[in-house]
Amino acid sequence: MTPPDVTIRAYGEPETRAAGSDDGDAAANAGTDASTDASGLWRLKRAFELELGAGTGGEDKAAAYADKLTPRYRKRWLAWVRRCVAEEPGCVVVADAGGSGEAGSDGAGTPAGLVGYAFVLPESLAFVWDAAVLNEIYVADDRRGTGVADALVNAATEHARAQDLPLDRLVLDVDPENDRARAFYRRHGFEPWGEMVATEL
Fold first, then answer.
1. Rounded Cα distance, 79 and 19, in Å
2. What is the pTM of this model?
3. Are β-strands 92-96 and 7-10 bridged in parallel, bridged antiparallel, or unpaired?
4. 7-187: which CATH number, 3.40.50.620, 2.40.110.10, 3.30.1070.10, 3.40.630.30?
5. Per-residue pLDDT tens for 31-88?
6. Which of 29, 45, 130, 162 lies in disulfide reach of 166, CB 3.0 to 4.6 Å?
7. Pairing between β-strand 114-120 and β-strand 7-10 as defined by DSSP bridges
């Protein structure tokens, strides 16, 4: 069950849009909200990458993941997200607790704003794995265990079911040493299916 203060919605479609506004106000709000969405999504993506680097490898992997999070990477990743969402609206869903989620004057983040996201690759990329791909899912640390992750994976699964796929499967990559994540995915019906290996380019 989703916490009452959280709304699961498509990225880029803020619920604040158009409520009692004329077209000009709605357009202005949409621009502001799109910027806030991008900022909130990047904050979550950055935390996801830093946790992934630190939690699934040694110091070298943690440093590599931290080093890649440059302004250029941010710009390219957000542009890719925009292209994916333009191609297939709803492929990125967010958990929105309202507000901006920006850091306060003391530099501390607030609990408001985006607190999680799930990113299903568009159907046009289904032939990469011959299935739907849950590319990323992340929930802010203070919202874990509250139902936000369950709501996001359910929304991602529903989106994937609507895709025309070679195999009716939703796949994702999970670290074999991440017991908590593996237990979470098992609870949602995921089972081991192959194994990924990699080499440096």
1. 28
2. 0.82
3. antiparallel
4. 3.40.630.30
5. 335 677 999 999 999 999 998 888 777 788 888 889 999 999 999 999 999 999 999 9
6. 130
7. unpaired
